[in-house]
Amino acid sequence: MQFKSxxxxxxxxxQLLDWLYARRAATWDAMTNLPKQLREKLRxxxxxxxxxxxxxxxxxxxxxxxxxxxADHSLIESVLIPANPALYGxxxxxxxxxxxxxxxxxxxxxxxxxxxxxWKRNLTPNExxxxxLSVERWHVAQPKEKSLEAAENRVVNNIVVMGMGEPxxxxxxxxxxxxxxxxxxxxxxxxxxxxxSTSGLAPQIRKLAQEPMQFRLAISLHGATDExxxxxxPVNRKYSxxxxxxxxxxxxxxxxxxxxxxxxxxxxxxxxVEDARQLCQLLQGIRxxxxxxxxxxxxxxxxxxxxxxxxxRFQQVLHQQNxxxxxxxxxxxxIQAACGQLQGEEFRNPQxxxxxxxxxx
Length: 361
Ligand code: SF4
Fold this sequence. Notes:
Layout: H1 2-5, H2 11-22, H3 36-45, E1 52-58, E2 64-69, E3 75-81, H4 85-88, E4 96-98, E5 102-104, E6 119-122, H5 125-141, E7 158-161, H6 171-182, E8 194-198, H7 202-209, E9 216-220, H8 226-232, H9 235-238, H10 241-249, E10 259-265, H11 273-283, E11 288-294, H12 308-320, E12 324-330, H13 333-340, H14 350-355, E13 357-360
Parallel strand pairs: 4-7, 7-8, 8-9, 9-10, 10-11, 11-12
Antiparallel strand pairs: 1-2, 2-3, 3-4, 5-6, 12-13
Helix pairs in contact: 5-6, 7-10, 11-12
This protein binds iron/sulfur cluster (SF4).
Iron/sulfur cluster is lined by residues 105, 107-109, 112, 114-115, 164-166, 199, 349.
């Protein structure tokens, strides 16, 4: 840290971290217990806010979507999802932030708009962490009556890494960021409150399993055979289902916990009873739960959503094999309208869409 070469005492680091993470200071001048001279040096050498808010969209249920411009003018998005009684019960004060890890995505899943534009670059650890801090700064700046909660400056207590990009393809930067967000001197968010989603990068899943911090993992499966998966997820040609499932079986799963598999249901592609049976076979012996996400069609997409009956039939097959399954159903017009507002430069990852939906069994 620069402080040493500047001849600053060690305790200044703790003061700075306190301003950055505990108090979410928005300006260097706000850090009033740092000498003015030091604040000047910090201003000259560092940038405090690297994300510029371009647009924020909100739904009536207070879900908030933030479009950020980065220093190189790239655009990324984060989505703040407030506690949803249907998901967490009346007493929950859970606020989830869905964050991005890359500009664009190289993995090209056929049902996801993030991949259509290709990959531009990885986000830095700073840009990943800043999504949380910037959302919380925005929150603090809200007039009290519109605020999600009273004067709290920390609003995010749950993180899902499901935004733009394949998180495990930006492994080192992601881990650096998550360690900061997890640290008591940093974001203070427990590892079990942080979920990383992956399209199935088997070697990185194995690497993650070795990390001392046990973040939650959600695997995007979306197909129970190589044939089906190859059609919709090009990553499967690199890491076959066998390789992926071997990596999943090697995950250290704490007692009473399960691996989460995400399965977007695409009509006529992966939603038949036979597909469900193959999925049961694939998951045999793995303590898991499956989130079924009926595809949310959007303009330009060639896929369709299955009917409710088809979705229920699929779920029944899994239930018969005692596989815990949740169906994510659209919660209502208000939320669907909000999802529909996601346009070209934003992502349409079905897993993200599932965050805006209620869970039904
Ligand atoms: S689903 Fe995830 S991995 Fe696949 S293209 Fe979209 S962002 Fe990339």
